[in-house]
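Database export, one record per block. Field names are fixed; values are copied verbatim from the stored entry.
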Amino acid sequence: MDPDAPAASRRLRPVRRLDVLHRSLHEIDLGDGPVRYAVEVDTGRDWTAVLYADGAFVAEADLPARFPVPGGVIEADHGLYGVSRMHFVGADGGERRLAPARGTLEDLRGRFGRRHPRASRAIGAAAVAVLLVNLVLAAPQALELVSEVPRIAERFGTFESPVDLPWWLNASLYAAGAAAATERVLTFRRNRIVDFETIWTEG
């Protein structure tokens, strides 16, 4: 898709191999026919969502986005680690998650889980463990940094973290946490405690 092309001529571009690094595409069939609606988020270009109907451009909006469609709306949002919401919300309040388009990173992760369920569960468990460790170790250090802000220090005093890790370990934990958070987003899992690192970075 050429983002500078006239709206009427813009068509949905097939997912290519390198697109997994920056492009998310989810689909759902709605209405009579039915019509296949697709929502594209391309972080390599901008932070907008684009709606297509049977491959033809319909609308574009900044994230978080809401697109009116037959029977309800499609809600889309994206955080630091990937798509945080991609749901059809019906007029009755019911929700359906849009399916990842074939070839996207979410689709590839889902197919891996179906083919290798044991390995998939092990990866999921490791992601939870990493995020919990990060939560325990990072929270006191973050609180210490916040407490050193002059206005906060004057009112509440300063806090000294009992955790003092070397920079290389902090960097390693951050990298592992980012990978674990991405895994959770790709598998559409969410818990307000486990996924705190993911939730606070949502758009």
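Remark 1: The beta strands are 23-30, 35-42, 48-53, 56-62, 65-69, 72-79, 82-90, 95-97, 99-100.
Remark 2: The longest helix spans residues 117-147.
End of record.
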